[in-house]
Amino acid sequence: MNFLEHVKMATQTLVAHKMRSSLTMLGIIIGNASVIGMIGVGEGAQEFVSQQVNSFGPNVLFVLPGSPEAQSRPVYPPQTLVLEDATAIAEQVPSVKEVAPSITGSELMSYRGKNSSAALVGATPEYLTVRGFDVARGRFISDLDLKRNEQVVALGSEIAEQLFGNEDPLGKSVRLKDITLQVVGVMRPKGSTLGNNQDMNAFIPVTTMANRIVGKTSPYGIQVTFISVSVEDQSKMPAAQFQIENLLRLRHKITNEDDFTVQSQKELMDRLSKITGALTLLLAATAAISLFVGGIGIMNIMLVSVTERTQEIGLRKAIGASQRDILMQFIIEAVILSAVGGLIGTTVGVSGIFIIGMLTPLEAGISPVAIGLAVSVSGGIGLFFGVFPAKQAAKLDPIVALRSA
To answer: Looking at residue 74, what is its pLDDT?
Structure first.
């Protein structure tokens, strides 16, 4: 009997028992769909994180207060950066393009009875280009605002809508704590970055933020939350980071442990990619267990099938079928169940990824490698778990099989 006849006979047998075949394939379908779906979600998460980090701006270094060890502790690091550090970086590091020191906080902002919780950002004019923001109407913070400690604010698009609705906010005044701020600009929508809604930001001059809202808390100058540094070219990022670190060590008179941390986008990306990669691997490994369970289900059903088809096996052997013929038929049946289940599972998994992409911020990440691996593994599982039942069937003595029937 040739191979095509084996396939035809195996297919006819499976079609004759539709319900049993469908339930047998269910484990493989769920396993394939889970593996492809989880890997797709993981890749989508990695792409999402990449976009979020890139939204900070091109070729940006972040100078944070506190040592690298302090950054990983679940406490607030000491505030060791001052506005003069940002000025020194801008003046003394040649590879730096622009420097944007920031003071951040959160306060309730109100306008004619409407209140909204604003994410305050004490900023300089350079913040606009370093962090990749755009002004939709009006203007941003100016150098003159910094010199005069002007009480002005540029509102994010969402907080402007919450406070003013359809009313034009330019020239209007909002209340913040015990001061009044004049709205001079409205920003273009930017969306969320790593969970922070940038459209709820309210930008005020960094000097006004320090003198009127948070107060001066350091004898060394105006403390800042962090400093964003734009570098001229990607190739100059390592040199700029090295120069900034040396400059701050001299300014802070450091002889032992740094009281600051300089992070690049690449370092932040690598750290987040490791986290998302580990989660993807964990999800895929968990989903792969379904494939193994599906394989056991195939072996179990095939063993039951051997018992039920004892008379058929005995009859076929009696009329000349060899052990190889019986072995091939049962193996092909197992492989067909796994392959068809794998294809259906692949379709379900890919469809699920597209649905997730439509309903969440994650992009649909279809991995050809994951699809090929899942289908290959499911076919291999069918072959592996189908061998034992097939050998059991091939070893049946035809006379004993006919008598037991």
So the answer is: 46
